[in-house]
Design brief:
4-stranded mixed β-sheet; 14% helix; single chain
Length: 166
């Protein structure tokens, strides 16, 4: 079971485990917005209904920059190879240094793009000018909040969708 965590302004922050949710609730750092009807946790002396949605009492401090990770690169580029413009699954992708490391390129948001294995192999350590490739999008640091990349699963509560921005 998982719990949707909202900040003090009711903005979704992340999805947490039921164990973390119970710690936040029992230490008084959060309040229940809604509970699961049929999910109980019992100790020797008490019984608790598992929270479906929790709201933090204190303001949540959002990360100022999006963390540089493979997943966030793929999310930024919408799981699309930036050279052949086709969409792929996570396992079918790699990332590519637009300006190769061997030629002074850095591992930064502005120099890394999502790439399929075939295109990555074809490009190798060449500059774009040395290939027939054209970038779909210019790579840049994302301006979205990484906390909004909530991975909702099939069996998660339908009520969670009411809290997500359109």
């Amino acid at each position: 079971m998982r719990t949707l965590l909202l900040d003090s302004t009711f903005f979704p922050v992340r999805i947490i485990s039921w164990q973390k949710a119970m710690i936040l609730l029992l230490t008084g750092r959060a309040e229940v917005v809604t509970e699961y009807d049929d999910k109980q946790i019992r100790s020797t002396t008490q019984s608790f209904t598992l929270p479906k949605i929790l709201r933090l009492h204190n303001k949540h401090h959002k990360r100022r920059q999006v963390k540089f990770t493979r997943l966030n690169i793929y999310l930024r580029d919408n799981y699309t190879c930036q050279y052949c413009y086709k969409s792929f699954k996570f396992a079918e992708l790699t990332f590519d240094h637009v300006h190769p490391v061997s030629k002074g390129g850095q591992t930064t948001w502005e120099n890394i793009v999502t790439c399929c294995k075939k295109c990555n192999s074809q490009k190798g350590a060449k500059l774009l000018a040395e290939t027939n490739f054209k970038l779909l999008n210019t790579p840049k640091t994302p301006n979205w909040s990484a906390t909004m990349c909530l991975r909702i699963k099939e069996n998660d509560p339908i009520e969670w969708f009411n809290w997500l921005p359109n």
